[in-house]
Amino acid sequence: MITFVRGELVSTGVDAVTVRVGGIGLRLAVPGTAIQHLGPVGETVTLATRLLIRDDRPDLYGFADERQAALFDQVQTVGGVGPRLALAILSTFTPDQFAGALENEDVRQLTRVSGLGKRTASRLILELRGKLAPAPEAEAAPDEAGDALAALGYSAAEIGRVLAHPEVQAAETVEERIAAALRHMGG
Predict the structure, then answer these.
(1) Which fold has domain 4-63?
(2) How confident is the model at residue 184 (pLDDT cuts 50, 70, 90)?
(3) Boundaries of every domain in the chain
(4) Cα gap 110→117, rounded to integer Å
(5) How far apart are CA 173 and CA 155, in angstroms?
(6) Burial class (CB in 10 A: 0-12, 13-18, 19+), 112
């Protein structure tokens, strides 16, 4: 399984990006919210990924972080929700906004998603309400690595993006998290 892709951002589209990894250009279908977090073409980016093989065709999906990728997996457990609709949900909502709409049983809010009707929205509420993974502790609580990056002059948006990176989250100590974050940021 391919869990993440790190390389040079070659191009972006409405719902896909191309990342150069070791001389190979990989096209990844991505939610619009992930594209917003990537930065300009030519930058080194890292995306959490899911590889799905449907009809003998491999499709690679990319996400801003592992939490977004996990939500992609979870919504597809509901009947009638495939990868396209899952991407549309992630393009419309952050994981927290989606969880809030489910908890409030807000069918009207959910049907804002292109291709999501009332019946499927009701099914999502019934099957996923209260089951979505909570935000990781690193996002909810103050983080020493984040404080160190802020002291180095990085913005809150840059810090939030880099701390959500799978390589940074996998680090075990604060020092390893800072080193991984700086590697990812090119610093």
Answers:
(1) OB fold (Dihydrolipoamide Acetyltransferase, E2P) (2.40.50)
(2) confident
(3) 4-63, 76-128, 137-185
(4) 8
(5) 22
(6) middle
